[in-house]
C-alpha cells in the first residue's frame, strides 16, 4: 500500500521556499491537492512532487 503523507500549508511553503499566499494560489489553481481534516488544510506530498516534476520539465502524473 502506498502511504500518502500530508503537510501543512506552512510546511509546504517552507519546502517549496515560497510564501503561504503562493501555496494557497497553487491550491486554488488545482496544482496542489489538499485534504481537509475538519478545518485543517493538508497538502499531499504526491502533489508537491508532481508540481516540482512538472516545473523541472518532467510530465506530471494526473
Outline the fold blueprint.
Blueprint: E1 6-7, H1 9-16, H2 20-28, E2 34-37, E3 40-44, H3 45-55
Helix pairs in contact: 1-2
How much helical structure, as a percent, in the residues?
Answer: 40-55%
Number of domains: 1
What fraction of residues sit in β-strands? 15-25%
What is the number of beta strands? Answer: 3
For the record, give the distance between the C-alpha atoms at the N and C termini, rounded to a whole number: 19 Å
The CATH C-level class name: Mainly Alpha
Label the CATH architecture. Orthogonal Bundle
User: What characterizes the major β-sheet?
Assistant: 3 strands, antiparallel
Instruction: Report the average pLDDT across residues.
Output: 88
Give the helix tally: 3
What sequence of helices (H) and strands (E) makes up the elements?
EHHEEH
- What structural class do the secondary elements suggest? alpha+beta
Low-confidence stretches: none
Basic shape: globular
CATH topology: Arc Repressor Mutant, subunit A
Kindly report the spatial arrangement of strands forming the biggest sheet.
Answer: 1-3-2
- Radius of gyration equals 11 Å
Keywords: DNA-binding
Domain Helix-turn-helix: 6-51
Organism: Aurantiacibacter xanthus
InterPro entries: HTH_17, SinI_DNA-bd, Tn1545/Tn916_Xis
Amino acid at each position: 500500500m502506498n502511504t500518502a503523507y500530508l503537510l501543512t500549508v506552512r510546511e509546504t511553503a517552507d519546502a517549496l521556499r515560497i510564501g503561504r499566499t503562493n501555496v494557497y494560489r497553487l491550491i486554488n489553481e488545482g496544482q496542489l491537492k489538499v485534504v481537509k481534516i475538519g478545518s485543517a488544510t493538508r497538502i499531499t506530498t504526491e502533489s508537491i512532487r508532481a508540481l516540482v516534476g512538472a516545473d523541472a520539465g518532467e510530465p506530471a502524473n494526473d
